[in-house]
Design a protein that fits this description.
The chain is of the alpha/beta class. The chain has 16 helices and ten strands. The strands form two sheets. Strands 1, 2, 3, 4, 5, 6, 7 and 8 form an eight-stranded mixed beta sheet that branches. It has a two-stranded antiparallel sheet with strand order 9-10. Helix 3 crosses helix 14. The longest helix has 24 residues.
């Protein structure tokens, strides 16, 4: 009984601290109407990583989510960016977020989730010839990102952060200031000093042993970046805080009840010999789990309708999984992961398997997104007011985008 009481006390203490000091906006003024009364802000968060299982799981989950929503809404060309109000991604997750939220020439997002998945796998196949990298520490994005300039430039062209169709957040660690740095569309729209080329942002959040030197569009802000996964492997808390403090774009968001959040995590890794790289991995995975635990506790035990975490529980066989390059094997593997029981993390008490599968949780989240779409169609009060860009710098990446994107939808990108 004492153990249960102590656990309850820990829950209450951490919930209070998190809700009061981590997420709550600094202003004491509250709007007369909260967004929860007319609709919830839809938040997408994608963990960082560089292995096949990391980003393939996230891309496959978003592909499944996108397909489900297309069927229910009757919009055959709806994109992930149409269905979320803000996206955060770290490392490879940041690249995926940028691909899904950067504006193309036609004003629509560059990629659907399925197109992004196919392009990333095809690029890995092209660079490696056969399968993924098989050396220790290798993975899907090692080959793609080792010399990122060419690949990222072809994908994003001259696009900058302000070319995102919705707010995006992508972290890195700035060696120049010895502090985390968060690339943000909201800041980029306000000043050229916070606007960076999208391809450089992706290179920065994926950098590992060599820092990426970059400057803002006006040359005033200099960043010497190493990977976002080092400092913010799970950017969910940053995304929540951004929404609750960004009153210009989310004027009615006052608390967690006004949010609808999905966090896509990475599969657990196989143990490796103790060393600097392994300790760094442990630290990164530990931070991601702690963020998940803190966010889940802050939302509370009844958070199923507001916060969803998708994370595989099996150990992939090392970093070398060449069979995944076959599309049928890839989808079969992803379906196996979705059928797994969901992993739940508990503060200071490890993890356990829930009774629900990842597929069940993802489908439940899709149903919540559909409810939000229906609510917004009926409401006259806009709950999201995205800052507009007078002269967007659209991507010049016609070679890739014209071959993988689909016809633009008439669906309004902002409700």
């Amino acid at each position: 009984m004492a153990f249960i009481d102590a656990d309850k006390l820990s829950y209450e203490i951490f919930s209070f601290l998190e809700s009061k000091f981590l997420f709550t906006p600094s202003t004491t003024a509250s709007p007369a109407i909260s967004s929860g009364a007319v609709g919830r802000i839809r938040v997408l968060s994608i963990d960082g990583g560089d292995r096949p299982s990391d980003v393939l799981l996230a891309a496959a989950a978003l592909d499944r989510l996108e397909a489900t929503l297309r069927r229910h809404t009757g919009e055959p060309y709806a994109r992930v960016a149409d269905l979320f109000d803000v996206a955060a991604g770290s490392g490879a997750g940041g690249v995926l977020a940028a691909m899904l939220f950067t504006r193309g020439h036609d004003g629509r997002p560059l990629f659907s989730a399925a197109d992004a998945l196919r392009l990333l796998v095809a690029e890995s196949r092209r660079r490696r010839g056969r399968g993924f990298a098989c050396s220790r520490g290798g993975g899907l994005f090692r080959g793609v990102f080792r010399r990122p300039g060419g690949f990222f430039r072809r994908v994003f062209g001259d696009a900058t952060l302000r070319d995102a169709v919705k707010p995006i957040l992508i972290p890195c660690y700035d060696i120049a200031t010895a502090a985390p740095f968060l690339f943000s569309r909201a800041d980029a729209v306000e000043a050229d000093g916070y606007d960076f080329r999208t391809w450089e942002v992706c290179a920065a959040t994926c950098a590992d042993t060599t820092a990426v030197e970059m400057r803002s569009m006006d040359g005033r802000t200099r960043v010497a970046a190493v990977g976002g996964g080092v400092v913010m492997a799970n950017p969910t808390a940053a995304a929540i805080t951004h929404v609750l403090h960004n009153k210009q774009e989310f004027p009615l968001a006052t608390g967690l009840e006004d949010l609808l959040v999905v966090s896509l995590g990475a599969a657990p890794r196989e143990p490796a010999p103790t060393g600097a790289a392994e300790l760094l991995r442990i630290a990164s995975d530990g931070v991601a789990d702690m963020v998940d635990q803190a966010v889940a506790m802050t939302f509370g035990h009844g958070s199923a309708n507001n916060y969803t975490r998708i994370q595989a529980n099996n150990l992939m066989s090392g970093n070398c999984t060449p069979h995944l390059l076959n599309s049928k094997n890839l989808m079969r593997t992803m379906e196996d992961i979705f059928s797994q029981r969901h992993v739940e993390s508990f503060l200071f008490r490890g993890k356990r398997l829930s009774e629900q599968s990842n597929a069940h949780k993802l489908d439940h989240f899709a149903s919540e997104l559909i409810k939000e779409e229906e609510r917004r169609k009926k409401n006259l009060i806009p709950i999201v007011v995205i800052k507009q860009v007078m002269t967007p710098r659209t991507s010049s990446a016609t070679t890739i985008t014209t071959t993988v994107t689909t016809t633009a939808t008439t669906m309004s990108p902002v409700h």
